[in-house]
Design goal:
By secondary structure, the protein is α/β, with parallel strands linked by helices. It is built from ten helices and ten strands. Helix 8 (212-224) crosses helix 9.
Length: 309
Amino acid sequence: MEELREGDIAVAGIPFDTTCGSRQGARFGPRGIREGSLHFVYQMDALNKGEKTMINAVTGEEVCFPFRDILRDTGDLTVYPADVEHTSECIRAGVEEMVSRGAFPVLLGGDHYVTFPAVEGFERAWKKKKSDPRLGYIHIDSHLDLSDDTEVWGKHYHGSTARRVSELDSFSPENMVWIGASGGFVSRDRWDFLRNSGAVQFSVDDMNALGISEVVNRAVTRASEGCDSVYVTIDIDVVDHAFAPGTGSYVYGGITSFQFLQLMDCLRSVPAGALDLVEVAPPLDPTGTTSRLAATGLIRFLLPKISGR
């Protein structure tokens, strides 16, 4: 990561799905998302030759070429499939270094557990900058990931991520927001934690009733209030199974692919210091649709950062 400079976007894969409690395959997510982005790379190479402007035919948004030279793919962080803690420390160290160098991490999972050590690394870097930082958290997912303990994985697995984040020094539930719950049942202790801790959640019904832009605006207000930065995590299973079948814990009643891209556009307004996208499992979707959707969403989010002269 020595090539990283202040203001760079650091893309890193985390090919780890050992704690996945459903169908595995998310360890292939980083490669799948990268492959899903190749169509954009080809277009970018063609358009980057000389100054020109392209227009989004729906929104009127301008995309200017050539792109800024700030996108760095740092490869995959080291993982140890049979050793969760060793893997976690590699993730912490990698994210800490990215943030300490002034880069914006874009992390490709991996199952949703990898978010927790990534957030720990994010917090470590902020503690170097400031003695007592306050950090916000936005969790976009069909599931709450608020399990406290399990018989198989204990306190560290892909369904406990948000609960573990809430226990970190720099995070308070009052600055934590959940977006995308789409039905199903949760245990009483998880529901009570969400309702009584000061956290906020917006379900898919809320997204449909209020509109995605309004939900994100409210989420930004809550997650960023009094905070130095915000960590954003996105589980691809927030998208309905009909549009994103390549994930382990798929759902029905999630958002559409169109809504997902709207969401990624709106997330540009978040004062984020890092973002991850997890649970893409290419072996479960031979068509490549899920990988391509994930890649397209990330491109939509990053466009304003890399575009412009």
